[in-house]
Amino acid sequence: MRPNRLTARKEATKLEEPTREAAALARKLGLEPYPVNYWVVSYDEMNALIAYGGFQTRYPHWRWGMTYDRQQKQDQFGMGKAFEIVNNDDPSHAFLQESNTLADQKAVITHVEAHADFFANNSWFGLFGGDLDAAAMLERHSEAIANYMEDPEIDRAEVEKFIDAVLCLEDCIDQHRPFDEAADPRERTTPEDLRERLEGMNISDEVRRQVFDEEWLDRLAEAEEAAADLTDPQKDVLGYLQQHGMQYDEEEGRAAEMEPWQRDVLDMLRTEAYYFAPQKMTKVMNEGWAAYWESLMMGEERFAGENEFLLYADHQAKVLGSPGLNPYKLGKELWEYIENTTNRREVADKLLRVEGVSWRNFHEVVDFDEVQGLLQPNPALDGIRPDTLDELVALGDDPRVDAETLDRAVSEYAADELDEDERTVDVDKYPWKVLTYEGLAERHFSLVKPQNRGFLGRIRRSELEQLSRYMFDDEQYATVEEALAAIDHAAGWDRMREIRESHNDVTFLDAFLTQEFVTTNHYFTYEFTRASGDFRVTSTDYQDVKKKLLLQFTNFGKPTVAVYDGNYGNRNELLLGHQYNGIMLDLGEAKQVLKRTYDLWGHPVNLMTIIKEYDDHDVEVARRRNREPTPVENGIRIRYDGETFEHHDLEPELRERIAAGDIDYDTKPDEWLS
Fold first, then answer.
1. Most buried residue among 139, 471, 557, 561 by CB atoms closer than 10 A?
2. Is the peptide bond before 3 cis (omega within 30 degrees of 0)?
3. Which long-range contacts (CB under 8 A, 24 or more apart) does 643-652 make?
4. Greatest distance between any 2 Cα atoms in the chain
């Protein structure tokens, strides 16, 4: 080890216990993370890792330097500090900055354990398939591309230009399909030839010639086949280009096959795009999940020491209070809402089974203060200290208590000859060690937390009616106390883990963002108004908020562009379609992407899209009447032939095929979600 790494060695030694205990606590709480290797790095190394997307080696390209410079400036000017980075790998690798305080290191470690659990258990990460060894894969790619750049027979500038072209389209993949299937066209029904139907009908040859002439039948068959092609566009643009792309040979003046190195580079970059796609698809869920468990471990389970807690709380408040659409804040709030609503449903279900309680009189006959008191955790579970271990022993064979660890703790604290550092169970520091998952669930039951008081009483009558609709044993308990003794304190956590397995950000928001959540957490939508020339709040309705969020997270927040035809106009031209969802493309940027796409196709490329046009007179009238003008939506096709751009009106049938509905997103494959 170099002398300047002695600081890192000392920091690593200091963090051995926190990393070990955080992993143990995470598993006690029901998490199942990948094993995590922790590395202590310097400030500059951390910035380089962030620039490289969490890995130590990436292929040569200018964008890494740009990202490094931006990250350094963000920290320098107080616009955001990076405390850690963790990658999706088995085992995962997490990097801790050696200059962090111990409180920050502990926060990072608990955050990382939750990320590693999400990586290991979310189904969308499983779409990449195979035995995950991302670090080795990216290192192989780095070496291969570096070798191409150093090859004297290959122009380095051409390799860089080719990489630039591919990266313009790195989000144009079919991220909702398994990686090894994504390049294959989706199954589609071949249109039936009308001739086959006519042959099965008793129509004379004379009538058939007069009514259904062969030329008309040929045109119909071609039109139906074209329609079949266009109604099932291929979303994996990179995969299509990998299979069918060419390059333009200026000497020959025509398209030619790609060089082997070009197809290899395209394959590697496409593979990386699929590897990183799940992280983009689950940013809110993943960061919210990590923030939730970090907060519980650091704060409620006192993983942050007494002299560390205030610093930790200050730093977490800054993270959650960052301006703009904050994935940490939105995700954590939504996970907490899911936990609370699940626990509320569990408690309400038991209360509706008490004699004399129904959905009609629930709010009148239930004493919510009494319920709040009865929901408090058993004092033996809540106030664990060395001098209260006997209270846990008195519970007997209780599923909430880790009997083996408790016996060891009692024995060690009874042995006066043992020094403090000789004990294997430090109850003062880690009281959770003597509890099981069930015990921790009761200890941290969400409805008894101060910030959630009153949540049970806000349950709507419609939800109570729904709960009681098929409840046949509705007088199961004689008293409220008896009913609450039967609740499952782990219901909220169990439900959270179920959701963590199957959802991505779009389905997560679609399924669980409600009016209650929007109102409680003060979310709203705003729009730029042409009438006044500024931004205004437009709605606090949850459907409007949800729509805005879904549009921002669909396809990573990027325009959805797909291949509609690889032989458009029977001229080997590529026809791409922007699946319009009410948001216009930036036509300047779109043209730049078409230029790069031309480099990967070798023939002219076309892009279909829809633009909004405003009449100046309508805008002025709308301004005077304080309303928004109504735009005219027109379909256009932009064609680039390697030198010039052409604009053409889009045929009505093509316009219909690229126009989306109110919200158009393909994120619920039948094989993943019911």
1. 561
2. no
3. 645/591, 645/594, 650/608, 650/610
4. 111
pLDDT for 98 beyond 60: yes
Query: At CA 79, angle to CA 102 and CA 328, rounded to 5?
Result: 65
Q: Angle formed by the axes of helices 156-167 and 260-281, to 10°?
A: 40
Residues near 391 by beta carbon (within 8 Å), at least 6 away in sequence: 379, 380
For position 224, what pLDDT does the model report?
53
Alpha helices in 383-488 (DSSP H): 389-394, 403-414, 437-443, 461-468, 480-484
User: What's the gap between Cα 298 and its chain centre?
Assistant: 24
The C-alpha atoms of residue 656 and residue 318 are separated, in whole angstroms, by 46
Closest to 31 (Cα-Cα) out of 230, 263, 292, 210:
292
The pLDDT assigned to 144 comes to: 97
Q: Which residue has the tokens 């049938």?
A: 653
Instruction: Tell me the pTM.
Output: 0.89
pLDDT band at 141 (very low <50, low <70, confident <90, very high): very high
Residues 440-470: pLDDT tens digits?
999 999 999 999 999 999 999 999 999 999 8
Distance CA(141)–CA(270), nearest Å, equals 11
* C-alpha pair distances (Å), 303 with each of 66, 92, 306, 441, 562: 37, 22, 9, 17, 49
Between CA 300 and CA 305, with CA 301 as vertex, the angle to 5 degrees is 100
Is the predicted pLDDT of residue 219 greater than 90, yes or no?
no
Structure confidence at residue 2 (pLDDT): 44
- Give the pair of three-digit tokens for residue 227: 């329609």
Token readout for 417 is 């000859």
- The predicted pLDDT at position 672 comes to 32
Cα–Cα distance between 673 and 337 in angstroms, integer? 21
Tokens of 494: 């169990």
Collapse the DSSP code of 611 into the 3-class scheme (helix H, G, I; strand E, B; otherwise coil) and give the result.
strand
pLDDT reported for residue 3? 46
Rounded CA-CA distance 98/86 in Å is: 15
- Spatial separation of the C-alpha atoms in residues 208 and 193, rounded to whole Å: 15
The DSSP call for residue 186 is P
Which pLDDT score is estimated for 634? Answer: 92
Distances (CA, A) of 333 to 240, 326, 328, 553: 40, 11, 8, 17
- pLDDT for 227 equals 46
Residue type, 557: G
Confidence of residue 492 (pLDDT cuts 50, 70, 90): very high
DSSP 8-state class, residue 424: S
- Token pair belonging to 177: 């399909």
Tokens of 367: 């004493």
Nearest to 664 by CA among 538, 562, 590, 527: 562
* 419 — pLDDT class (breaks 50, 70, 90): confident
From 58, 117, 45, 120, select the one nearest 84 (Cα to Cα).
Answer: 45
Strand, helix or coil for residue 259: coil
